[in-house]
Amino acid sequence: MLSDIAAWLFAIFVINPLHAELRERVDLANLPVQALQQSRQCVAAHGPQLLEQAGNNPGWATGTAIGIAVGWSSPVHLFDARDPNCSVLIQLFNAENRREAEGRS
After folding, report:
1. 3-state DSSP assignment of residue 45
2. DSSP per-residue codes, 19-34
3. d(CA 103, CA 12)
4. Which region among 14-18, 23-27, 65-69, 82-86 has the lowest average model confidence (pLDDT)?
5. For 3-8, what is the mean pLDDT?
6. How far apart are CA 66 and CA 71, in angstroms?
């Protein structure tokens, strides 16, 4: 039961906002259709794996959700950099994180 709650909270505080942020960043970046499709495939492939991990490890889920929700960590580390579908998404988040760190939005 605790694992189900952890997975649910992880979905609410990490996966759902990640989908919204992905759409926003992709729209602002004016990415080509192929890059958009790759980003969606990345989230579709890794989302269920992340939910499974959240269910199996509630401590990880809680810590990760809090870290991302309050801005202590970036969701970039949730994706497999070796997955070619995730490369565009990772680059997009990293570029935005650099701009935010430099004080630009």
Report:
1. helix
2. HHHHHHHHHHHT--HH
3. 28
4. 23-27
5. 78
6. 8
Structure tokens at 68: 């991302």
Summary mean pLDDT of the chain = 81
Q: How far apart are the first and last CA of the chain?
A: 41
80-to-4, 52, 67, 99 alpha-carbon distances in Å:
24, 15, 19, 23
Give residue limits of the domains in the chain.
Answer: 2-101
Residue found by looking up tokens 């760190």 in the block: 101
The answer to whether the beta carbons of residues 99 and 48 sit under 8 Å apart is no
Give the pTM.
0.72
d(CA 79, CA 47): 9
